[in-house]
């Protein structure tokens, strides 16, 4: 049983987008396996959110740069005696194959989904609150009442253009999250501030992780930029007022993911 809560704070926009997509992909997988009409409605709603992110960002090139960078780092440590050579070769193989799959993808990722007239209709009406009722989209209502195999097949087809992207993001975030060891810290009177390593290029300042025991009745509020970060441990309000900073010294673990 996990006894800690971990809060993550991305230090650049690229990682912020990756984590948002990771969360959306997890939600999509959850609703995809549900067999109710509301599960399928939720899955499509999440898929529309994923497509919105892809329309606003040139993610393919950003992800390819990250995959290449991680592959270069792994190649540099390949001859280190303490490295598990077999595991390293498997990771490099996965990275290289994922990169090849993305390079082979033509055009902007996700545009093929809109070739479905049904999905286009759903996307257009989804901007209206409650705009996908049966009287708005009878075709969608018909689709929702089909057997599970039919609905699952369509959803897997519509989401398939994002499969390689999801694998790539999972790889990148896994590398970043596990590239550094946590340090034990104390936030005096619920406040902790520190400077990022000035000797590291700010592009490599990727992510902060703050972990604290679930028994501690507060949450971590993290802010920061290229040079300095602040953590405040806030006590949730029980009377609908704003949370307040804890007056106690709070022990926690801090991981600076610089990779």
UniProtKB/TrEMBL annotation:
Cellular component GO terms, alphabetical: cell division site; cytoplasm
Keyword Membrane tagged: no
Locations listed in the record: Cytoplasm
Record Pfam families: ZapD (PF07072)
Gene Ontology biological process: division septum assembly; FtsZ-dependent cytokinesis
InterPro entries: ZapD (IPR009777), ZapD_C (IPR027462), ZapD_sf (IPR036268)
Main location: cytoplasm
Keyword annotations from UniProtKB, A to Z: Cell cycle, Cell division, Cytoplasm, Septation
Function: Cell division factor that enhances FtsZ-ring assembly. Directly interacts with FtsZ and promotes bundling of FtsZ protofilaments, with a reduction in FtsZ GTPase activity.
Protein family according to the UniProt entry: Belongs to the ZapD family.
HAMAP family in UniProt: ZapD
Known partners and oligomeric status: Interacts with FtsZ.
Name this polypeptide is given: Cell division protein ZapD
Protein's organism: Candidatus Methylobacter titanis
Recorded name of the encoding gene: zapD
